[in-house]
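Help: why these numbers?

___
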Amino acid sequence: MHQIAFVLCEHMLATSTTLPMEMLKAAESAALSQDRQVKRIAINTVAVDRSPIVTRAGFDLAPQYDLDSVPRPDMIFIPSLWRNPRPIIRKNSALLTWLREQYENGVTISAVGTGVCFLAEAGLLNDKAATTHWYYFDQFQRDYPQVHLKRQYFIAQAGNLYCAASVNALADLTVHFIQRMYGKPISLHVERHFSHEIRRSYETTSYFDGGTRHHPDEEIMQAQMWLQDNYGREIKLSLVAERFDMSVRTFNRRFKAATGQSPLQYLQEIRIETAKDLLKTSNLSISEVAFKVGYHDMGHFTGLFKKLLATTPSEYRTTVRAKLFSAV
């Protein structure tokens, strides 16, 4: 099951939740029509408690779960809020702690419009790219000066954090998520049924932290997405090549031609960049960080970290935290 949690909170825009829900269920239906064995989607609504949520439209939504009981998610959607988001964020402070925990567990988190403020308030967007609704740009910049606001982009991605400026941008982002789950044909099917216009691709309207290199090799793009989604698991690259119907030699050659890196280098980069962020923002031990990013051998993790960054994980944590606190 793809476990997907939709956060509900007061004064939310209902369409920022119901639209991606409908798109995801349409994708599941289309995928099942072709293969009855594909992973299904479990949609769970969650709030700080299980009291009914009054939406901006005036009708109530009843959350299925509170923060302690919701099934462990693979993906989280945070809705947009109407007008000033700060009172709602203060009222839902427990949600910030929960979001930090989910981020540490490698969960993909998406926020739309002023819902991005939840990620910023939790400190998850510090020194990362983000976007929000155009009307709130200036206030967002004042409230969260450590966030790299990308005003010219409708979507911003920083690792497993995604920000969409509007509900329309969220629709484009949801198509991207569907492609990751079920492949390009299913994502195009959903896009055609939910939009009458030809939309620009996710890649052309988005900002990616880390200088992601774009290329036309669709199968290698799918392999990159798979590695991004599964870096925390034990991965044999020979099995990844087999998964995409290539020999190891062909996979390595095409991957290097498309990205400028070998598959192993690409996987190591994802893992080490994620580890750097966890060392900076979490209180996980070094061994816990190593395990979260897919390394069960502490010596190997420390050696690779030092090889790539010329410092050990513990020295890196000490340095970045000293800078962080000296800036406060």
Q: What stands out?
A: The mean pLDDT is 88. The longest strand covers residues 41-47. The chain has two domains: 2-208, 218-326. Residues 4 and 16 are 14 Å apart (CA to CA).
